[in-house]
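Objective 1b: paired records.
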Amino acid sequence: MLDLSGKTLYEALLDASKDFPNGKAVFYQGKSISFKSLIKRIDRMADILENRLGVKKGDTILIAQPNIPETLVLFYATNKIGAISNLVHPFIPFNQMRNIISRTNTKYAFLFEQRVAKEVEKYRDLSDKIFVTRIEDSLPLVKKVIYHTFYNMHIRRKLGKWRGKFKGFNYVKDLKPTGKGSSLVNGNEKETAILLHSGSTTGDPKTICLSSWNMNFLSERACEMLACKPEEIRGKGMLSVLPSFHGFGLCMTMHAPMVNRFAAVLMPKFKAKEVVKYMRQTNIASICGVPTMYENLLSYDKFVNSKKLKNLHVCFCGGDTMPVELKHRWDETMKKAGSSCQIFEGYGLTEAVCVNAVNTFDNNREGSFGKAISGVTFRVVDQQGNEVKRGEIGEITLKSEAMMNGYYKDEENTKLAIKDGWLYTGDLGYMDEDDFIFFKQRKKRVVKVSGVGVFPTEVERLVETVPGVKACCAVRIPDKRLQSALKIFVVASYFDEEGMKEQIMDTCRKYLIRWALPKEIEFRKELPLTQLGKVDFRKLQEEEDSKRK
């Protein structure tokens, strides 16, 4: 097994570059970046951060980027000099971005140009903190010219003028290293190095503090999960389409592959057509994704009939429960293509980075999340924290070196989540006699929409700001394309339903990411209440589930 103990994330990648300098570290848009070249780019950025921008150990740097090489360069450069990477969804609305920047005491924010373009005038108030990246910065020359030409033609048609860079903003491409080099802060690998944003074990949005060791611990076990020897994956690639602001995407499709000398194949936005093209251009041996992604691939004839399916070794599904029928169809498709690849489901949560239990070729059971990976212990407990018998339902808890340091500046909720060294996940399930873990339902209120965590409480609070809304409650409903979506029940002070719906949707579109937009709105005279006088969302969910069978 790879030994990454005592190392920062940067040092783990540096070891890989020394061991496999000319090997492929990153593949992006038809262009390969070797480990040696990637480290050089990271070192230049570390020089810029430290010597141009004055970033010091412990400072927070916000990175809100899609899966492009700049994301990795910024992430590892920040880690090298001992600063903290604050990874955020690149397309969250301005008000949320501003709140995160303020709440986490962010020194600088590296934002994607297309995000800034949506609310450029608002971002001017923060322009001294912002550095902008452009999609064309890392494209191969021909693609760069094509993209730049057609994108600006689109802007010219829309705005009536040719648009260059936004005036008053700093661009990453214009930053130049000083040539002085940068510090290599190796310090304590268990200090907080990463901030990720999730629903917490209670369902309310929280900021999670992770260390270098949290991610390195899981990365050491990548070959165990892949069921292969390290030398068998060198020169091959992992499709990295899951986002960097999510623990699953950041660790298992970016960091873990690269430190195991296995390329991260970056894809900013999932398209089945692009997956097929990437498979023709490079040797993709593994994919990590969410159920909706695999459904789309199986519905695309060119993927199903691709000769490159033979290169696939194993695929993993997370972010939401995978239907058993989906696994059957996937495995059968691979078998017909002459591939031994299977798709396996695992279990994890951002409080422990990502996957801590998984099905493998040697150990798998239908309907389960598999067994704990080496070094991780699971148990299922009752409300008093006592372990229940095998087969009995209780709260899933785990003990792992991947466990977070805690919630950012939130000691109270950290103590609720971590008790006596055990992480209480807020998920209900059971373990069988053979240690396989079975998930039943979420104790916490998080709805996974196409694998993206959506927080009903956040949507409710926003909708309740709309004039005329007295109360509301959001519940999960099934969706053929996204697997899940939100429906909101609304109590209004007046009943102009169409006008109210329009107001609600306009507000949601303005402030929420698209996955959080309600798909349905139902008006009621009143909502059911608990004995404490709170809206009983569980009863509404049960009613909706019953109605839809």
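Objective 1b, second protein:
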Amino acid sequence: MSPVRPESSQDAAAFRAPHTAVARGGAAVVVGLALTGAAWLLGRLLGFEYGLDQGIYGAVADVMHAGGVPYRDAWDFKPPGIFFVYSLARSLFGEGMAAARILEALALVSLGVAFGLFSRRFTGLLGPGLLGAALAITGHVWLGFWHTGQPESFGAVLLAWALVLATHPAGSGDPSSRRRRWLAWAGAGALYVLAALMKPPLGGGLLVSLGLVLRSEWRQAPPPQRARALRGPILAFGAGALAPLLVLGAYLGLRGAIPALMDALFVFTPEYTKLNYRTGDLLVFAFRAVEFLFFRFSLLNPLGLLLLFALPPLHPREREGALHVLGVLAFVLAGVALQGRFFAYHYGAAVPLLALLAGWGLFKLVCVGERVGAGVIALVAAIVLLANANGLKEPIPGGFLERARGVDDGRASNRETHRVAAWVAAHTEPDDAIYVWGFQPMLYGLAERRPASRFVYNAPQRAAWYRTRGRPALMAELESDPPAAILVEAGDVHSGTTGNELDSRTMLARFPRLLRFLREGYGPGETVGSFTIHLRKASRGAPPAPPSDRE
């Protein structure tokens, strides 16, 4: 953790890197303890189960593994990036919920490497970045099973590495070092676009990084060569950004999935987004996005940000790096505001970026004056008392220790879902298809049964703006290949997605064609938890002719 010599002519004494052995030792102990806690929590993350969203991603990934394509063969209205992440996890680590969690844990470990490299570049030390990584990882895992494994979770890691590549040092200026720098810029452009494929606003950081690179190149080039100096970064970032879009477009286009993607993202999603908006909401949402970022999560983050700018810099380039991160963070927060829902996982890419800067600020506590011991004690006390002391709904007085005991892995929440899946597996054959009329697509994976329809959950048939498209499409699939079992869920009200306060059982009574199909071809049903499971009649014969359905 030895300091780097300042890169400007500014007096090195003005910067507060820990030069004494005692200061370096104290900093190393604090960072080591923070990383140890983060490593323990990563172990807990490996045991996390799925929530509703992760169940969707897992169901789509299973369909992809069987040769299907997102949107065309497995419907959802999220951008496509997360489906490829879950599919990659399944290919690397096998079936089951643990696969995605292993990949998530590895991604978070790499986040620590990226934060360390970025911090070494702008603070002269690894320690501040590693402390920021510890804050980011612990804050992430403490969100629990529902708010992790989300597009923003993986988007945060892509943004961290995009920052590292976008700020690749100039080197000696020879042709080989220039080529390496252009490749790094192209990589940054690709990573920003991959982040945008998780959630579109995450890609806005590309404009920040490109703008800062262009500013630097313009200022360093002789006046006659300035225009030429800008061409390299623009072409490199642009080529990198274009590459993943071309690959994705070719994949979806060759598989005939573009129309289905356009329908999901540009027909269903806009109306879904409108559910939260009223005139004048956007300014309120922008304020709330910032407020929640600072006070809904770890109180160490705003404290660290305050210390970052209140205390002398660790390095001449510290402010440059901090402003770069804040610029990327601004686009992430704009995306949170535009969604207008303020779920905790919507901040999954914002909190790690803030934690990076908070780590820089908190690290300065061990570098203030000669009172190293007091600074170390203050930092340890802040971590113990404030680390994630805020719950998602209200403060948790126990702070660090209480949260450490209370991480929610989802096992209790999913106990009934496991019971339903076991019942289905025991009463159907392995090659059977089933259909879940509800919001629990994880049942397909838990029961190890393929979905009978691309609609792995029933939002398209329940949303008023889409049901005239979604219902006929669903029935065409069910009638062409009737599933062995139909599971009807009760109590699954999701007004934020469907736009109404009705659960699946109630909506079934308002869907005559599906209700008729169920009564004519299936038994009366067995109740298991909140599900009524209807098995197909053995002497069912041919499926009933599709009647006209005016709904």
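Residues 1-13, 395-399, 539-551 have pLDDT under 50 and may be disordered. Residues 329 and 433 are 44 Å apart (CA to CA).
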